[in-house]
Design goal:
The protein is an all-alpha fold. The chain has a domain at 14-75. Helices cover 65% and strands 0% of the residues.
């Protein structure tokens, strides 16, 4: 590896760190609301309490379980088939 390549690799974390800390960093809707300063104190406290109770892993499990139940229901009640089209009487068509 060349000396220049090593220097670039050494500086890379310092170059990328501002990007990670800046506005390009992904934020949850909750974090965006807090950063926008559009909430009054009561709203901020209410959302903070709700946010503290959320468990992303549990939410994902709940979503997966609900989807599984919906798929099972869909399997029990197959979609209605379209009625068969009547055959044409070729002699009547001319």
């Amino acid at each position: 590896m060349t000396r220049t390549a090593r220097a670039v690799l050494r500086c890379l974390p310092a170059l990328l760190l501002p990007l990670l800390a800046g506005p390009l960093r992904a934020q949850t809707p909750y974090q965006r609301l807090l950063a926008a300063n559009v909430l009054d104190e009561a709203q901020r406290e209410s959302l903070a309490k709700l946010y503290a109770t959320l468990n992303p892993a549990q939410l994902r499990r709940n979503i997966d379980e609900t989807l599984e139940a919906l798929w099972k229901l869909a399997d029990r009640f197959p979609a209605a088939k379209a009625p068969a089209e009547p055959e044409l009487d070729r002699a009547a068509c001319g």
